[in-house]
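Before the break, one more example. Copy the sequence into your notebook; we will annotate it together after we see the structure.
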Amino acid sequence: RLIDSGHAIVTSLTVSRHGHRWHASVLARVERELPVRPTRRQQAAGRVGVDLGVKTVLTLSDPLTLQRGQAPVLAVDNPRLLQNTARKLARAQRVMARRFVKGAAPQSKGYEEAKDKAAKLQALLSARRATSQHLLTKRLVEQYAEVALETLNTKGMTRSAKGTADKPGRNVRQKAGLNRAVLDVGFAEINRQIEYKARWHAVTLARVPTFFPSSKRCHRCGWIDTGQTLADRVFHCQACGMVIDRDANAARNIKNHATPVRP
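Here is what the structure looks like once it is written out:
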């Protein structure tokens, strides 16, 4: 309908295969009037603070409705898609490796079957992750006028702890598992989607600095727990006595202290 009315022009068509499925990607230039201000519903909701994590993908300062008819939530559990698929994927890759014959061209039918099975699992994992990310980011920008986030250095967060021969790292295996979990959630992709979808819905994006102590600071009185570790899941304020979930405290700090980002 947009093409027939002259509001859209197709500029390219790309056909590709991802796993066991073929995809046709249509790139079009579409004329669309973007809203200049949030809706009344968004303005009434105001700002929401969002803390990204591994145990819960999103922990929110205010409730978010994911599906119509369901109760709003303050946290979205991590589906752990990679962990749930890892065993099947590892088995498929081992079969593929056993059937590979160096120098053979073409490879055997058995190798191609194993390769297709591994590719199918990778494609399903990617599709499920994308579906989850798009649902969460869309609901955020639809329901709030302002979204407050942390400024995350994902590359630094997922750096290997292996170290060097002279200075070997510590807890290398645990750090590698944490790195996989962070990449599985997709912090960078969630941030990217919120940024461009915010422009589509006239939503203001706000951020706190990279090293802002959102998890260590009491959102009520401002006391900072300098001894807190990643193992501490509950925040105990020794100044005002407040006890709260660590991630919920971080989300409220992000909401209270984030600064709007200029477009």
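The longest helix spans residues 109-143. Residues 34 and 200 are 6 Å apart (CA to CA). Try to locate both features in your own notes.
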